[in-house]
Amino acid sequence: MAPKMIFVANSRKEGNSTSKGPDNRFTGDVWLDSIFNDKQNTIANVTFSGLKEAYWFCWLTTNFVGARHTHEGGQLIKVLSGSGWVCDRGDKPKRLRVGDTVWCPPGTEHWHGADDESMMSHFVHAHGAVDWLEPVSDEDYKAKK
């Protein structure tokens, strides 16, 4: 028998599903609004606050990004509001704007987050396990300039 679809009413879990992103994965104020999770999928709206300084590695910076990471089955990103950046390891960061959609293939080492002068909210669908790697260096973040 074929699997049945899963319908999540109002695209939200029961109750208040919004929580602060963990400090070991994000810099600055990051908020996660979980929509759906199972063993193979994580679907959420993620908002990077931007527009204020954050403490990171004993110096002040304006990075509002998640740590570099990979997804076992890839990750789909769609920017809902604000602007930001996405970057594969070794590449120059690419600007993200409202409506942009990014597919990160399985195993791609990447990071994404808000611009230093804007917040960014994006819808993400991650497939499989996430492997959190090292934080994005100030040098890597500033390579966008």
From TrEMBL:
The family database entries (SUPFAM superfamilies) matched by this protein are listed as:
RmlC-like cupins
- Origin species: Neohortaea acidophila
Pfam families named in the record: Cupin_2
Would you indicate the residue range of the signal peptide? none
Quote the PANTHER family the UniProt record gives. Answer: BLL4564 PROTEIN, RIBD C-TERMINAL DOMAIN CONTAINING PROTEIN
Name of the featured protein: RmlC-like cupin domain-containing protein
Q: Which residues form the Cupin type-2 domain?
A: 66-119
**Gene3D superfamilies from the xrefs?**
Jelly Rolls
Cross-referenced InterPro entries: Cupin_2, HNL-like_cupin, RmlC-like_jellyroll, RmlC_Cupin_sf
